[in-house]
Amino acid sequence: MDYMLNEDLLGLKEICTEIGDKYILPIRAELDEENKFPREIMNVIAQSDLFTIYIPEEYGGTEMGSLALAVATEELSRYCGGVAVSYAANALGAMPIILMGSEEQKKKYLPQLASGEKLCAFALTESEAGSDAGGVKTRAIKDGDSYILNGTKQWITNGGEAQIYTVIALTDPERGARGASAFIVEEGTPGFSYGKKEDKMGIRASATRELIFEDCRIPAENLISREGFGFMVAMKTLDNSRPGVAAQAVGIAQGALDEALKYAEQRKQFGVKINSFQGLQFMLADMGTQIEAARALTYAAAGLIDSGSKNFNKVSAMAKVFASDVAMKVTVDAVQILGGYGYMKEYPVEKMMRDAKITQIYEGTNQIQRSVIAKAMIKEAKRK
Ligand code: COS
């Protein structure tokens, strides 16, 4: 698929390959084992200007776009899904400001995020509001020139590591999803603290944590867009970020296929290399074909966003659902090809299998994606 990438994107991919070889590969097993956030790698990513690619030029970014973000996320994910999501979650967190923030908010926050001086996170999910994003309970009550936030956000990627949070809270609970609003909350604001850090099945290098707001007073100017626009901000953010999850899935799957190919070339049984067996060749062929198809759809979705189209939520969801299902299947097959060794922690494929699972769940479960896709298709059919 490299033919789909111009010189800039190939150069970007090469930078990520270098970061992967030099900084991620040697420590990915340790990060996984110890549930350790890759702070040093985030610094390297910042020095390599990778945080700039989704930020507009006038705010310190390089504005390379969604395809560039997908390429970088994919390549980092080939090495470690946990490191890659720690990177990509910054784009998710910054998206509400990029899409709907005021000029003042953009000027204040985006340059710090582009340089990597500060990390960012997006806080929508709560214990009772997962797929039902409109069911959030966190309250934001206007009090003079401030809003006072109360509530708990759950499973926030980069929680406790980021300094800037975009948070969805209800300003008008009577109106349900239409009463939600989006806010910027900075680390260190009195009344804002972190809850427990989660112990996860996969992507263990990434930090997943609760955010607790107890009478947390933030300036009214930290409201993104207008009161009542929070659900829309969240939906638009997710539409934009889902190709990133797809890219993560493609990268994880590619990493697993690379390992399976390497092993099948070295491993001998019955006196021959196991890649000479047709049964195994067919598995490899299907894995490769599925990955290329997922990659093509992911690049198409990201490319559609970059084209300026406003109508990408269906394709965005399609890429996410397809690529994540491929990643799950491919990583399970990679473990199968490595057999007993694949099941052991000495080999990286069991980690890749664990890392792949979340891509079917977060940023909207694959069941929700299918419902988004179907709704869009039915709407389109009615228009014809
Ligand atoms: N872009 C812009 N607006 C959107 C939208 C989108 N993608 N999707 C919905 N909306 C608008 C609708 O047009 C509707 O507006 P009005 O109230 O003005 O009519 C409003 O938002 C409510 O839409 P809807 O009735 O479809 O909302 P639902 O509660 O049925 O939920 C889903 C819609 C399921 C798609 C949404 O809740 C969702 O995406 N859930 C998954 C959330 C998620 O990804 N969570 C992961 C955590 S974040 S890492």
Describe the structure.
The protein has 384 residues and is α+β, with helices and mostly antiparallel strands. The chain has three domains: 7-119, Butyryl-Coa Dehydrogenase, subunit A, domain 1; 121-228, Butyryl-CoA Dehydrogenase, subunit A, domain 2 (Beta Barrel), CATH 2.40.110.10; 231-383, Butyryl-CoA Dehydrogenase, subunit A, domain 3. 53% of the residues lie in helices and 15% in strands. The strands form three sheets. A four-stranded mixed beta sheet has the order 1-4-5-8. Strand 9 (268-269) and strand 10 (272-273) form a beta hairpin. The mean pLDDT is 97. The chain binds coenzyme a persulfide. Coenzyme a persulfide (COS) binds at residues 124-125, 131-134, 177-178, 231-232, 235-236, 238-239, 313, 362-364, 368, 372.
What keyword list fits this structure?
single chain; 384 residues; alpha+beta; Butyryl-Coa Dehydrogenase, subunit A, domain 1; Butyryl-CoA Dehydrogenase, subunit A, domain 2; Butyryl-CoA Dehydrogenase, subunit A, domain 3; 3 domains; four-stranded mixed sheet; four-stranded antiparallel sheet; 11 helices; 10 strands; binds coenzyme a persulfide
Could you write a compact summary of the structure shown?
Helix content is 53%, strand content 15%. The chain is of the alpha+beta class.
